[in-house]
Predict the 3D structure of the following.
Amino acid sequence: ENEKAYYADPSIVAFVRPGLVLKITGVTVDADGTVKARFTMTDPQTLPLDRDGIYTPGRVATSWVLARIPKGQTQYEAYTASTVTDSKTGISAVQAGSDTGGSYQKNADGDYTYTFGRKLPSGYDRTVTHTVGLYGSRTLTEFDLGVNLADTTYNWVPDGSPVTVTRDVIKDASCDKCHYDLTAHGNTGRTSLAVCVLCHQPQTKDPYTGEALDMVVMTHRIHMGADLPSVKAGKPYTIVGYRQSVHDYSNVEMPSDARRCTHCHEQKTGAAQATAYLKPTRAACGACHDDVNFATG
């Protein structure tokens, strides 16, 4: 599906020039907390693309996430979060997600500025790492070239200090050893861990099942799948996603031994926190050992 250009007529490929490259070139914050991100969208050969798909082939849809790493912590907390309530149980939970109510301004061909609908709160910490995540899709189905996906991030510290704190545990290449061109949430453009961890952190939970959607917990549980003690005891491991779609991971069998941490936590990829797995936490260990009460033993 992701290689249709290989089989397409060369003249069609030359005209369409499939692919999508997104890049954030700068972020500013106004005195009232309004965040503006300037970005470019091009094809892989740097031809500027039109968001509306009028002057260049394929409409490009983009979405935005805004988050920070609080002082003294290692994971993100998103500003673009909202409370979701299960209509059946009445249980509510916070879920990080994409910005709403924002607007776009065209600066030049393929060069735009996005103004976030969500403003930074008064008194926000200007000394910590802030990150803007951008993900998008270029629809080329009318040329039988599918949907092209891309995402990117931009880190900065609002007070002008250098960025010294990041969240970089596993590189995409490690995931793609098994998950070829790993994407999530359909054809929206979320293709990198750098974007995924902006929302999948301790702040985000599933109100329908009570399961944590933190990447640390969720990823370990998904890969453990059928071998989770709770699953063996008869309780399915499910997560309710977009539009109440139920995802059941109870039959997942990991090809490698789950105790081989470095199969995913590779040590030569250049990840800034590649050795994070050597510092166990209750969240990480309890994700798989879900029959252990760490408070009582």
